[in-house]
Amino acid sequence: MQTVVVEHPIVRSRLSVMRDETSSNAEFRAALRELSTLLVYEATRDLPLTELDITTPVGPTKGHTLANPPLIVPVLRAGLGMAEAAFNLLPESQMGFVGLARNEQTHDPEAYMASLPDSLAGRPVIVLDPMLATGGSLAHCCELLSTRGATTIVVVCALAAPEGVHRIEASGLVSSLFTASIDEGLNSNAYIVPGLGDAGDRQFGPR
Ligand SMILES: O=P(O)(O)OC[C@H]1O[C@H](OP(=O)(O)OP(=O)(O)O)[C@H](O)[C@@H]1O
Ligand SMILES: O=c1cc[nH]c(=O)[nH]1
Ligand SMILES: [Mg+2]
């Protein structure tokens, strides 16, 4: 698995707004949206292109279009805050949805929703979830995608813990991971330290 920590001054500043406990829900959502644009920009850098003939007002030339736009899959709830930014960059794409809620006693994900095409054979997938903590949720999501035939899965998250990076690498299902930071680790509640708290609650309020 290729792991890329996107180093950029704007990425750092938006992540800091997200980490700051005094940021409002609206400030957190705006910072996540802007951060997601930058992370998805990097995650799509190597997408293959198809050449096409176009005509400018001045004359003919060659243009390009995405050869095989990826399916975008936000993991609900928190990944919803990244979805619009990804769709804006990839308007040709389609979107699927996976709903997972981590059980805060066992730290295992509990699935409550999946809305995906039956077959993902031949379709690259970009999975969006701001938090990669134990990695249980993203591993579950990637297994679901793999069961439907996905072979190229790119994960984009705002923050990761080393434990989660190792877990999804060990799954063998993820081609690349793009994140703004790999933090120190997990606390006894399996929250990322220093992290930013609960990314779903910080956007939408407690569930
Ligand atoms: O790596 P893990 O240990 O599995 O934890 C990460 C998961 O926890 C958060 O979702 P949560 O379960 O809180 O649901 P929410 O998005 O509805 O808040 C986050 O958005 C990830 O999906
Ligand atoms: O730090 C964490 C861990 C899991 N889920 C979150 O939203 N934050
Ligand atoms: Mg949550």
From TrEMBL:
<keyword id="KW-0460">Magnesium</keyword>
<dbReference type="InterPro" id="IPR000836">
    <property type="entry name" value="PRTase_dom"/>
</dbReference>
<keyword id="KW-0021">Allosteric enzyme</keyword>
<dbReference type="GO" id="GO:0004845">
    <property type="term" value="F:uracil phosphoribosyltransferase activity"/>
</dbReference>
<dbReference type="InterPro" id="IPR005765">
    <property type="entry name" value="UPRT"/>
</dbReference>
<keyword id="KW-0547">Nucleotide-binding</keyword>
<feature type="binding site">
    <location>
        <position position="192"/>
    </location>
    <ligand>
        <name>uracil</name>
    </ligand>
</feature>
<dbReference type="InterPro" id="IPR050054">
    <property type="entry name" value="UPRTase/APRTase"/>
</dbReference>
<feature type="domain" description="Phosphoribosyltransferase">
    <location>
        <begin position="5"/>
        <end position="205"/>
    </location>
</feature>
<dbReference type="InterPro" id="IPR029057">
    <property type="entry name" value="PRTase-like"/>
</dbReference>
<comment type="pathway">
    <text>Pyrimidine metabolism; UMP biosynthesis via salvage pathway; UMP from uracil: step 1/1.</text>
</comment>
<comment type="function">
    <text>Catalyzes the conversion of uracil and 5-phospho-alpha-D-ribose 1-diphosphate (PRPP) to UMP and diphosphate.</text>
</comment>
<feature type="binding site">
    <location>
        <position position="77"/>
    </location>
    <ligand>
        <name>5-phospho-alpha-D-ribose 1-diphosphate</name>
    </ligand>
</feature>
<keyword id="KW-0808">Transferase</keyword>
<feature type="binding site">
    <location>
        <position position="102"/>
    </location>
    <ligand>
        <name>5-phospho-alpha-D-ribose 1-diphosphate</name>
    </ligand>
</feature>
<keyword id="KW-0342">GTP-binding</keyword>
<protein>
    <recommendedName>
        <fullName>Uracil phosphoribosyltransferase</fullName>
        <ecNumber>2.4.2.9</ecNumber>
    </recommendedName>
</protein>
<comment type="similarity">
    <text>Belongs to the UPRTase family.</text>
</comment>
<dbReference type="Pfam" id="PF14681">
    <property type="entry name" value="UPRTase"/>
</dbReference>
<feature type="binding site">
    <location>
        <begin position="129"/>
        <end position="137"/>
    </location>
    <ligand>
        <name>5-phospho-alpha-D-ribose 1-diphosphate</name>
    </ligand>
</feature>
<keyword id="KW-0328">Glycosyltransferase</keyword>
<feature type="binding site">
    <location>
        <begin position="197"/>
        <end position="199"/>
    </location>
    <ligand>
        <name>uracil</name>
    </ligand>
</feature>
<dbReference type="InterPro" id="IPR034332">
    <property type="entry name" value="Upp_B"/>
</dbReference>
<feature type="binding site">
    <location>
        <position position="198"/>
    </location>
    <ligand>
        <name>5-phospho-alpha-D-ribose 1-diphosphate</name>
    </ligand>
</feature>
